Amino acid sequence: MLQRAKQQYTNDEVLEIEHALDVAEKAHKGQKRASGEPYLMHPLAVACILCDWQMDIDSVLAGILHDTIEDTDINLEQLESLFGRDVAFLVDGVTKVGKARSGMRDLTTYLPGTKDNLSKLMIAVGQDVRVLIIKLADRLHNMQTLEHMPREKQKKIARETMEVFAPLADRLNMGRVRVQLEELAFRYMMPKDFARTKTLMDSRLKKSQKKLATVQREVEARLKDEKIEFEMDGRVKSVYSTFKKLDRLDGDIDRVHDLIALRIIVDDLSTCYLVLGVLHELFTPFYERIKDYVAQPKQNGYQSLHTTVQTDAGQIVEFQVRTREMHDYAERGFAASFHYNESKLTEAYKKGAIAKLPANLSWILDLQEAAAKASEHKKFDAKKFRMNLFKDRIFIYSPKGDIWDLPVGAYPLDFAYRVHSDVASHASGFKVNGVMKPFSYVLQHGDVVEVLTSKTAKPKAQWKEYIATNHAKEKLRMQLSRESRGMLERLLPRRK
Ligand code: MN
């Protein structure tokens, strides 16, 4: 860990890493993982993954410390005084994601119905996107060591990984991580299908490897003739996505044409198209399979040119052509954005190495801008890092860890009506983060709200002042009219 950190971070930063390792080691002393290893191995591995992804120093420190608040005697204040606000903020975010998840005890109750909620929640608690990236590193290591868990737990964790964490990685365009997570999850969810598909792929790959090498040499020679600078390598399709594709192709592996794709990486965008032209001259393209993800990037920001061709020998090969920047972004996605600061990005635009980012990802640019500014001033402004996605919404937790989103400016009563109108109608007070608060308290993002009820409490007309949402207003109006009707009935003499 330290060896690697030394190549990547400044001397001062390495000292901080040593400090964090010290603190984590003492805090986790005596704790063991399911494998029997000292617990410290886990946060250490997570931090290594984050180094691998070339994350910033604060993320790495938070990775080392990510389980201390949850599992040891260390508290947030201590972390803040030892490592500063930003690291404490990140560890707090990671802890909150974990808590909210364990609040949803039974997987079947929150999947797939509220899967969306979970993703939203993760994005919300991780308004600093680095929280999610740390969480992904945490999950990746837990998946890599899943063999030590009992079978039932394996299946549950694998399914959650497939349904929540892999899509999250995809959302952040962290393609390599998505594939790693899917591959591990698939193996534990459907071990037989995994083994069968793998065997099928291996025998098929053995057959085509030689022919593919010939194709590769042919292309290399031609590109050299054209004086094009390039790098080329082959990528093998993941077992999981091959399995999915086989399902659509009646299990016929010979029809999976992109089992291996040849990847060509060049300097700039115009060279990408040049290479595409060369390929189409050399071989016969399937025109309907040419995909220009540069002019039209995928939703998650993925950019590349894809084409499938047939060689004279009859072999069908897929090629992917992209710039170094596109490649980096496709592999590391959001994590790459911490590596690419603003000036590098602008440079990349100027030399035409990347096309525009799709509009729905323009917030990446905002982030990068903030990151670049933060590093200039050596001061990090967490607020600037907040994502725009849920700008007008706040997320409120119940003591059990369930989560609701409410508009900014909502009151505890809004929350109570959201949970259940009966609960709200008997509300006698509110505990926010364990402390009593008045009805007029304005909820803050991340508050844990407990509604205190009493049998004798009733909805009151003044409550209108402490309600911001239409939903709660409507419920209260109904309750009040029911209430007054009841009162009227009691007051009127009964006819016999
Ligand atoms: Mn962990």
Description of the structure:
The protein has 496 residues and is α+β, with helices and mostly antiparallel strands. The chain has 3 domains: 2-190, Hypothetical protein af1432 (Orthogonal Bundle), CATH 1.10.3210.10; 192-331, Beta Polymerase, domain 2 (2-Layer Sandwich), CATH 3.30.460.10; 392-491, Ubiquitin-like (UB roll) (Roll), CATH 3.10.20.30. Helices cover 56% and strands 11% of the residues. The protein is built from 22 helices and 11 strands. The strands form 3 sheets. Strands 1, 2, 3, 4, 5 and 6 form a 6-stranded mixed beta sheet that branches. Strands 10-9-11 form a 3-stranded antiparallel beta sheet. A two-stranded antiparallel sheet has the order 7-8. A hairpin with a 5-residue loop joins strand 5 (305-310) and strand 6 (316-323). Helix 12 runs antiparallel to helix 13 (191-225). The protein is globular. The N and C termini lie far apart (87 Å). Bound molecules: manganese (II) ion. Manganese (II) ion (MN) binds next to loops. Manganese (II) ion is lined by residues 42, 66-67, 138.
